[in-house]
Amino acid sequence: MNENIEYPPINILLADDDVDDRFFFAKALAEIPISTNLTAVANGEELMDYLLLETTSLPDVLFLDLSMPRKTGFECLVEIKNNTKLEAINVIMFTTSFSRGVELELKLSTTLSKMGAQDYIRKPVNFNQLKDTLLLTLNNLADKIKLNSIKK
After folding, report:
1. Tell me: the pLDDT tens digits for 11-64?
2. Separation CA 68–CA 45 (nearest Å)
3. How far is the C-alpha of 124 from the C-alpha of 121, rounded, in Å?
């Protein structure tokens, strides 16, 4: 693949109820060498309203917090994957550390994958790790996102 080809920005939707997490996510995106457009919502109901009412374009990738008020990330994931308009959205589950043990976290990750999530990421504990995680995740998704946009 030619590295000099210019691609449009990756449209990212972040659903997270934590104001600080949304702030640092946006700040980290601004510091990585990938062109992005970020939209953020603060809870599951707001997310689903946004997705169902959006008439111009859907996000290339959704970073979805599991634990949100009004509607959880689990509930949103099920609704997204059961809706023909939304099912193709790349969903990355992005949540605070799961403190019940590695085995249960692995089961959670497997369950989310079976439900249609592309990945499960535990929120990094520091800003540099967040930047590295976002860069790696977006690079891994970039080819898929670019191929989908070419097919449209």
Report:
1. 999 999 999 999 999 999 999 998 999 999 999 999 999 999 876 689 999 999
2. 9
3. 8
- 31, 51, 105, 128 from 66: Cα distances, Å: 25, 17, 13, 22
Domains of the chain in sequence order: 10-144 (3.40.50.2300)
Q: Say whether 79 sits in a helix, a strand or coil.
A: helix
Q: How many residues does the chain have?
A: 152
Q: Which of 13, 68, 8, 65 is nearest to 39 (CA)?
A: 13
Which tokens sit at 41? Answer: 């919502």
Task: Name the residue with tokens 């008020």.
Answer: 69
Task: Kindly report the backbone phi and psi dihedral angles of residue 94, in degrees, each rounded to the nearest multiple of 5, phi listed first.
Answer: -135, 105
Tokens 């995680």, located at residue? 133
Q: Which residues of 83-117 are buried (b: 16+ CB within 10 A; e: fewer)?
A: eeebeebbbbbbbeebeeeeeeeeebbeebeeeeb
Please report which confidence band the pLDDT of residue 103 belongs to, taking 50, 70 and 90 as the band edges.
confident
